[in-house]
Amino acid sequence: MSLTDLVAVPEGINVLADGRRLQNAKQATMLALLGSPRADLNQDCQAVATPSLKALMVTSSVGPFRVTGLRPAVESLRAIMADIAAEQPAVYRALGSAGMLCVRYVRGSRTAISNHAWGTAIDLTIGGILDPYGDGKVQRGLVDIYPIFNRHEWFWGAAFSKEDGMHFEVSDGLIRSWLASGRFGSGLNPPETFLLSLGDRGDEVRYVQEALNLHEAGLLVDGIFGRETQAAIFRFQAREAIRLTGLVDGDTWSRVHVLRRDGGLKVLYADAAAPAVAQAKITPANKKAQAKPT
Ligand SMILES: [Zn+2]
């Protein structure tokens, strides 16, 4: 058995010891707290152009390799690497980086900005080998270390709708905690935690897409909040006679649950009326939904 052998994504990933689910950092959060890294984004790795964000970038060793990234993210990564060295020394010796800061869209998207663009995500190699993208399997060495990343409130990309096992990123909660402790200056207001907007991806987006399809929205349930999902949300909001935002805001989010309940779909995120998504307790149902690679 080698550290690069491919195995199934484990159940129950991206959950904290107290049962809270980690969420990947939402695009609305990143834009609100850090701004856009540059005006012209494409699929190529470019540099940060926005001066205020540039000032937050550092280049430094985190133990096994050097990275360039957002200062608090680099500090957090250094602490993670120290834990890996102590708890999983064999993996530590084989670890390499395929990059942290890289200003671009998510592969295959023209709306979703990769969190690498803010220097808050890292791609790892094991023995110089990248985990194959989107095959629903992950390298065994990554399974050994994901609990350490999760404990430090980093989200593992193995849970993305298109499995991205090599990828770890600062969770929505962690980036908000850096705001709260003044790491980005003062006077900023984070968006509501349950807000989903164009460019977001993940289980919550799938959850909304499934619900909208009950009204024959005809969406591909891919967990990616693209233009078609946005258009379907506008139509849904018009039908429900609520504010037309094209966002999954508080009103829309609560009506999505009603829609699912009426349509016979599972209702997850039980305390969904409030900013409770980030705090949602694991139930057997959403644990399964979260862990299932697609
Ligand atoms: Zn990545």
UniProtKB/TrEMBL annotation:
<dbReference type="InterPro" id="IPR002477">
    <property type="entry name" value="Peptidoglycan-bd-like"/>
</dbReference>
<dbReference type="Pfam" id="PF13539">
    <property type="entry name" value="Peptidase_M15_4"/>
</dbReference>
<protein>
    <submittedName>
        <fullName>M15 family metallopeptidase</fullName>
    </submittedName>
</protein>
<feature type="domain" description="Peptidoglycan binding-like">
    <location>
        <begin position="201"/>
        <end position="254"/>
    </location>
</feature>
<dbReference type="Pfam" id="PF01471">
    <property type="entry name" value="PG_binding_1"/>
</dbReference>
<feature type="domain" description="Peptidase M15C">
    <location>
        <begin position="108"/>
        <end position="170"/>
    </location>
</feature>
<dbReference type="InterPro" id="IPR039561">
    <property type="entry name" value="Peptidase_M15C"/>
</dbReference>
